[in-house]
Amino acid sequence: MPASKEKKLEMLRSMLLARKFEEELTELCKIKNKIPGMMILCTGQEAVGAGVCAALEADDVIITNHRSHSHLLAKGADPKLLMAEIFCKRTGCNKGKSGTLHLAVPEVNAPCTTTVVGGGPPIAVGRAFAQQYRGEKRVTVCFIGDGAANEGSVHEAMNLASVWRLPVVFVCENNVYAGAQRYEEHTRAANIADRAAGYGMPGVVVDGNDAAAVYDSVREARERALAGEGPTLIEYKTYRWRGHGENDMQLYQPKDEIARWQAACPIPRLRADMLAEGLVTADEVRTMEAQAESVVLEAIRFAEDSPYPEPHEALEDVFA
Amino acid sequence: MPASKEKKLEMLRSMLLARKFEEELTELCKIKNKIPGMMILCTGQEAVGAGVCAALEADDVIITNHRSHSHLLAKGADPKLLMAEIFCKRTGCNKGKSGTLHLAVPEVNAPCTTTVVGGGPPIAVGRAFAQQYRGEKRVTVCFIGDGAANEGSVHEAMNLASVWRLPVVFVCENNVYAGAQRYEEHTRAANIADRAAGYGMPGVVVDGNDAAAVYDSVREARERALAGEGPTLIEYKTYRWRGHGENDMQLYQPKDEIARWQAACPIPRLRADMLAEGLVTADEVRTMEAQAESVVLEAIRFAEDSPYPEPHEALEDVFA
Amino acid sequence: MQKLGMGQAVNQALREEMVRDPGVFIAGEGVGVSIHDSPMLPTHGLLAEFGPKRVKDTPVSEAAIAGLAVGAAEAGLRPVIEIMFNPFFTLASDMIVNHAAKLRYLSGGKSSFPLVVRMKSGAGFGAGCQHSHNLEAWVAHCPGLKVVMPSTPADAKGLLKSAIRDPNPVVFIEDMMLYFAPGPVPEGEYLIPIGKADVKRPGRDVTVVTWSKMLGVALGAAGKLAAEGIEAEVVDLRTLSPLDTETILASVRKTGRLVVLHEASRTGGFAGEVAAVVMEQAFESLKAPLRRVTGPDIPVPASPPLERFYIPDEGQLIAAVKDIV
Amino acid sequence: MQKLGMGQAVNQALREEMVRDPGVFIAGEGVGVSIHDSPMLPTHGLLAEFGPKRVKDTPVSEAAIAGLAVGAAEAGLRPVIEIMFNPFFTLASDMIVNHAAKLRYLSGGKSSFPLVVRMKSGAGFGAGCQHSHNLEAWVAHCPGLKVVMPSTPADAKGLLKSAIRDPNPVVFIEDMMLYFAPGPVPEGEYLIPIGKADVKRPGRDVTVVTWSKMLGVALGAAGKLAAEGIEAEVVDLRTLSPLDTETILASVRKTGRLVVLHEASRTGGFAGEVAAVVMEQAFESLKAPLRRVTGPDIPVPASPPLERFYIPDEGQLIAAVKDIV
Ligand SMILES: Cc1ncc(C[n+]2csc(CCOP(=O)(O)OP(=O)(O)O)c2C)c(N)n1
Ligand SMILES: Cc1ncc(C[n+]2csc(CCOP(=O)(O)OP(=O)(O)O)c2C)c(N)n1
Ligand SMILES: [Mg+2]
Ligand SMILES: [Mg+2]
């Protein structure tokens, strides 16, 4: 079942929100000491988070990684609480303990985010095991990058998920780079998805800049998972417009490559399709953009106005 | 180039030796406290070690694992020193520090044996890297089991070896079990070799009880490696006649399954082929068997007559 | 009272908790179908009783096993996973140390990880250093983890039940040699709190702090010392983290002398933590230098005379005590 | 004398050793092509100078990176690998602890593993506990490994050169914050022996034992204490294993008082080892209880005020010293 009008509107809305959210972060990073720590953006990759999460139910779980903004926003995380956490404020979704790198939002079933590359899949296996154990009709989606696919933990998790027919969807965002390393330098197979056969599960390659295609592929994998047939590995071909982090000089990223991918931006693409199909009007899109902007600006205001945690609060939340 | 007469004789000899070596160990294990620690045998799988090592040159390296007897004997390790080490004697190849589980024999280019399942492949990658770095026309063979294939380290090593076109041959002895767990319970893909495609390298499935076929497959992989094309993953289908270790009750191993595989024993198979091809006479085979027996009995005598290390020798050999 | 080996005591704890709480499941390599068929082993019979849904044999994939626990715990189940031997903790350590122990903190207290990692440890079975390498000091040096290391079957049962009910990750380390040494275990349900040391033998002349298998060495030596008029107080930590500093300090304040005994290698071993606590908080009571009796700074060798040389024994402990009394 | 950050000093050591010995190569994530383009970083410019044969960018595969070093070292090369951040040591730990450290012993001394593992550590860059987690105590509790943790650029250079020439596996831990703090570095070739501590400031009233980034805190506090008439002797361990007990003991025998300062979390930290050594061998000289100044038993938090709270500072050290002087 392809994405309905509502689903497409949802995807467009979440992409616009994520884009605006990160465009503002890009600017904020230029102000010294405004935002502590690293800043890792998924600008240009928003169709993956938007398409994946639109295909999920609220009770489905996502386990994400260091490049999580669009995933979490698409899953419904409160932009104010995310922004405040990115600012390391006490009002952030993790009270400033996490900062930007491991944003956890259990309220929207994104309970464990890890910045250890490859750390997500074993945990996703456990989360999906619980769904199977309890007979819940739910799935767990795990986001990894192309670089992460070379971590041993990912291999172990995919094998176990397949042997036990666990309801997991492994989502690999192949954005061509792992840090400063190009795909070809870290992987010899043409696709990460080529590894799926070795686990006896389907491996699918999808255009990661086509939100509707992302949606479709996840619906299918979700069906399969709920039918008890086990996991699927979906690889989304996309591109990292910005550096690994905002401190990355991008010297190794060809300028024309970036330009080519920017021309293939997923947002105008979905918008154009929806306009052509008559699912949305240009005016409605402008309203959505304005809404995204106001939500983001409010989130920034909230984050800026929020206090930092008190030092001794560092001692809290270690043990339950 | 298929195995020559000399190579076939070499394989038969080394299989007979390994078989006798382990048959005696089986008996010795029944004598309480005769041999300390565990006892892990490869009875029934001898064609793999024999075929692989016959296909190698003396300077090629093997990295092996807990089930190593036939590998090391085929590579030319001195049976006396191996036996003494298995007995944990001071005259053993590793002065009793290792015992049976991590028999290292650098003299025959088997310098690092590990009983950590999956520990071999990353080390093999390093050993092969040194060969490439120095421009040596040598390869490194790494032996793993079917169970080991599910360790993350194996994944990382295969990927790295392939990306860097390292001269490694990954040899997976699929003997149907990993401990008490059947293959189907730990892996969903039909073959471990199905994983090779995910690393952009050839994956080959070979009858592991056919020594000549083992030989051929390794010659081919070795050529490829020396031509700079990188690693190959070869899976040998074989069977573990005995338990995981000699303390294993084998309750989970169907008796008729064992019988079926015993009927497919690699030794009579190669012998019959060679007799049919006129490469050897029945008399010559009997002489070879007698030689194997006398070598093994001498090794046992040597091991039994050797002293244990002195306690304080435990302090030696930590640092160079 | 029933006499059980520690494996059997662990088995009882697992059974009782699985009966009590349907969210408890066990997973690991060979926890169901095993190459062994011995009732002395911790997971014996559980597959037959609870079925393959709750007794999960896993592939040889330590990171996945640990990740399974992390994810399932967050979902509210109560995983009890097994890492076959302590050296393989390395392979699970990212999941345990960087995830189980930290994800709650990183979530600002929103997510919880009530899981138990059971791990076999100890030297003495001739398998060498890739099977025998006591790393309890690693685990105890990791905020967010609790570390339990019982010395008797009775303690093991009560502590494991507490561990399974604990809302936090607990690493539960069992010395394999203790599986085969029967000891009294009370009938029926009981819990032993995590974080409480136990004075296994009172004494006035010297405090011997120890844990796990070394308790037997300590009690054996204490008996012999008593025959010579030296009364050693033997404090069994039982839990390394959180550490029961009160019990340690009370004992040293009484005796004025401290020997710490553990099987792990010396440098960086957990004896250092005990020494530091005492030197910080009971300095005025101390009448003599510290003595540590530990494994030497070598890997555990396989050959019997070498392995015996590695493992601390009564003679070494007695000599250390006499050195400072 | 040239003024270099520690990253630059490490860079010089790597360059000089690569020029000297064609068997030296470096490997790791981003050691060649990097997201950074800063001459302050340790591997800056090496790819351009030595080419892709000797400067190997690896996939994100810590176990493979470490295994690469183990195998290549056995073959006689001199690998210098980088583990990007200390918490990722977990992922390489099986290869380093169960293999690099043990395979020589297991071979009965026949195989050797001359490799160096460089590892960034330390808190202070706001990335939180999955990037900042000082685990030097783990590595120091592993027979078969040497552990170096320099505090100054000059020490870093001389120690790294020794580490690369050492016939054994050496874990070399660099606090990332030190990359950006320039200090004097002698011109030309020099070696600093592994296993030798350095008295960075002499004093008579109290011994402060520390290492790595905390040396700065120690020297800062010592300066302020001196203004109040308290002379602290600051012992920089430089090498944690093998530990230079002589230098520690000589100092404590002189001052009679010991404070150990480290950034790692408290329980099970390496301060315990230092305390135990002193309590064993210099007990009679001690005039006051031990004080430890360390990170608290929590993961490293990300938010700046929380992270500052985590990192031990001069105020805490001064208070600890005054407490016992
Ligand atoms: C275990 C581990 N190794 C290294 C790193 C440092 N690191 C952070 S992100 C990253 C690259 C990841 O690449 P990829 O998986 O493709 O994700 P992307 O950043 O492209 O989204 C690396 C190496 C880490 N965080 N964890
Ligand atoms: C990391 C690790 N996990 C678990 C074990 C225990 N163990 C030893 S052999 C083995 C099974 C290995 O199976 P496989 O790789 O198929 O080799 P086989 O024994 O069949 O030759 C296991 C689980 C180990 N030695 N190392
Ligand atoms: Mg990427
Ligand atoms: Mg097998």
Describe the structure in your own words:
The complex is a heterotetramer, with 2 copies of chain A (320 residues) and 2 copies of chain C (325 residues). With 320 residues, chain A is an alpha/beta fold. Chain A has one domain: Thiamin diphosphate (ThDP)-binding fold, Pyr/PP domains (Rossmann fold, 3-Layer(aba) Sandwich). Chain A is built from 11 helices and 7 strands. In chain A, the strands form 2 sheets. A 5-stranded parallel beta sheet of chain A has the order 1-2-3-7-6, with helices on both faces. In chain A, strand 2, helix 6 and strand 3 form a beta-alpha-beta unit. The relative contact order of chain A is 0.17. In chain C, the strands form 3 sheets. Chain C has a 7-stranded mixed beta sheet, with helices on both faces. Chain C has 12 helices and 14 strands. Chain C folds into 2 domains: 2-185, Thiamin diphosphate (ThDP)-binding fold, Pyr/PP domains (Rossmann fold, 3-Layer(aba) Sandwich); 198-324, Rossmann fold (3-Layer(aba) Sandwich), CATH 3.40.50.920. Classes of the chains: A alpha/beta (320), C alpha/beta (325). Chains B and D meet through helix 5 and helix 6 of B and helix 3, helix 4 and helix 5 of D.
Please give a handful of descriptors for the protein shown.
heterotetramer, A: 320 residues, alpha/beta, Rossmann fold, five-stranded parallel sheet, two-stranded antiparallel ribbon, 11 helices, 43% helix, globular, C: 325 residues, 2 domains, seven-stranded mixed sheet, five-stranded mixed sheet, binds thiamine diphosphate, binds magnesium ion
CATH architecture of chain A: 3-Layer(aba) Sandwich
CATH superfamily of chain A: Thiamin diphosphate (ThDP)-binding fold, Pyr/PP domains
Global morphology of chain C: globular
Number of helices of chain A: 11
Fill in the CATH topology of chain A.
Rossmann fold
Number of β-strand runs of chain C = 14
